[in-house]
Amino acid sequence: MLSVASPTLLLRSTVKSGTLMLGARRGLASTAEKFGFDITLEPSTGPSDDEKKLAVICGWMGAEARHLKPYKSFYSDRGYDVLSFAVGPQHVLKPQTSLDFMEAVLDETLNNDPDKVVTHYFSVGGYLMGQQLRLLNDPERQQDKEKYHQLVKAQIYDSPPDVQGIAKGIGKSMAMGKFVATTVEGLVNSYLWAVRDTAGKHHRASSDHFHENHVPAPSLWLYSHSDPVAPPSDIDVVMKKWAAQGYTVEDIVWKDTPHIQHARFDPEGYFGGLEKFLNKHV
C-alpha cells in the first residue's frame, strides 16, 4: 500500500482472479410519481462518439440532486448519459418497494439501449444493487440477465455497508448530529430485529446476492479505514469473494475520510482514481 498526506489515500494493486429518449423520459416521470422521489435521466454534455454510454448512479440515503452533481458531471462530461436516483427509507423498511423500484431502474437501463453501462452506487445503495441482482436471477429474466452482464463494463461501490451496517447508515444520513443519528440507529435496529423473519429475509437475501454477484465487470471499491458504517473488514470479505470468481477487483482506500465523503475531502484522489479505472476497463 502507498500512503500520502492527510486525508490519507491508500492504494492497493489490482487483484486479478447523448440522447435522451422520449419514451424513457415518460417512463421516468411515471416512475418518479409512483415511488414518490426523483429518478432522472440526463443526456451527456461531453463529446459524443459512436458508442452510447450510460452511467447509473445510486445516491446514498437522503441524497439530493445537488449532492450528486459532482458525480453526475464527471460522467456527463465524459460522454455518458446519466440515470440517477437515491435510496429512500421505504426501500429498507418495505423491501417489496425496493424490488419494484429496482425493477423499474433495470427496465429503464435496458430500454435506453446503451452500448456500455457503468454503475456507481453509494452506501446503502449496495442493498438496492443486491435487490436488482435478485431480480436478475429470476428465470423469467434470463435474457435480461445476459444482456445486463454484457452491457455493464464497470461497477463502482462507494462505502457500501453490509446488512448489519444498514441501521448505522440510515442514522448517519440524517445529518442532524450524533444524538439524533444514534437515536435513529437504535430505532432502525429495533425495527429490523422485529421484522427479522419477514422483511429481514429480504435484507439477508439482498446481502447474499451481493456477496455472490455474478456480474463479471471489473469493480472499484472506495472506502475509508475510519468508517464505522462500512468497515473495511466487511468490504474485504466481498472483494475476496469476487476476486475468487476470477473477476478484476480494485480499491482506493483512505485512512481518515468520513463515510461517503471521500470525494469531498480528496477530489483529486477520488476522481483521478476513478478516471484511471474507467480508462483501463471501459
Identify the notable features of this structure and list them briefly.
12 helices, Rossmann fold, disordered N terminus, globular, eight-stranded mixed sheet, 8 strands, 18% strand, 282 residues, alpha/beta
Known CATH architecture: 3-Layer(aba) Sandwich
Distance between the termini: 25 Å
Helix content: 40-55%
The count of domains is 1
Summarize the structure.
This protein is α/β, with parallel strands linked by helices and 282 residues long. It has twelve helices and eight strands. Pfam families: DUF829.
What does this structure look like?
InterPro entries: AB_hydrolase_fold, DUF829_TMEM53. It holds the Pfam family DUF829. With 282 residues, this protein is an alpha/beta fold. Helix content is 50%, strand content 18%. The protein has one domain: Alpha/Beta hydrolase fold, catalytic domain (Rossmann fold, 3-Layer(aba) Sandwich), CATH 3.40.50.1820. Helix 1 runs antiparallel to helix 4, helix 4 crosses helix 5 and helix 5 crosses helix 9. The two termini are 25 Å apart.
